[in-house]
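Hi everyone,

Forwarding the result from last night's run.
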Amino acid sequence: MARRPILSDEEVLRRARAVFVEWGYGARTKQISAAVGLTWGAIALRFGDKRQLFRRAMAGPLLEPGEPRCDHAAGADLRGLLEGLRSHLWERWPQRLQYRLAMKTADRDGEPDGLQDWLAAALERARGGVVRSDLSARELAQAVLMFLVGDVARRFMAREQTLTQDPVFIDSLVVLLSGS
């Protein structure tokens, strides 16, 4: 009898992550097992209990080195920067939300600040007449992130499956940043 191919840890975590993003820590072990394609015993043998699996599947910074992949030079296209950041948050934010809710973590592991710092630096590079100067780049980044996370949160709570283009929303953020 042929053996089934062994799933890598990364593949198991990827499949479990999808269940945890949808159901949070309250996901049942049966749901996780079905999504992963292994028995719960096999999963637990590799990862320990459900809490350890959840931590490994869901933990990780919102912003990793090189992300989001929407770097722009000075005088950059703000629309492209904002659309790229919105897409990045759409992919990563629900995972971080479920982790924070389940782990009741008050520690911020620096990731919101890291994302805000990244955006502030990108906005500072775009200052050459493109970005308003009456507020600091950090203040602008904080406001923009608040709006973007709010948009992603609203869509996540509405259980939208894909991120649709929203030119009016992005246009509003461009106006906020440009001060016009």
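Helices lie at 9-23, 29-36, 40-47, 50-58, 78-103, 111-125, 137-157, 167-178.

Cheers,
N.
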